Amino acid sequence: MATKAVASQAAWTERLRRFFHGVWVELKKVHWPTRRELVTYTLVVVVSVATVGAFIWLLDSVFSVLLELVI
Fold it and tell me: Are residues 41 and 66 in the same domain?
């Protein structure tokens, strides 16, 4: 029985080792952005979110005024 438990433990650790090796191999394939690209992409996202937020705020304000006029 003890050998079966040891074999099971060894198989489990080998699967875990292969998993992390596979993760490492895939991470080496990733194209990581440069600092300049990261700043550019971040600014694009922040400006886009601010623009959409302002648009939604504007629509909300217009609909609130229209609803007040109706009620």
Answer: yes
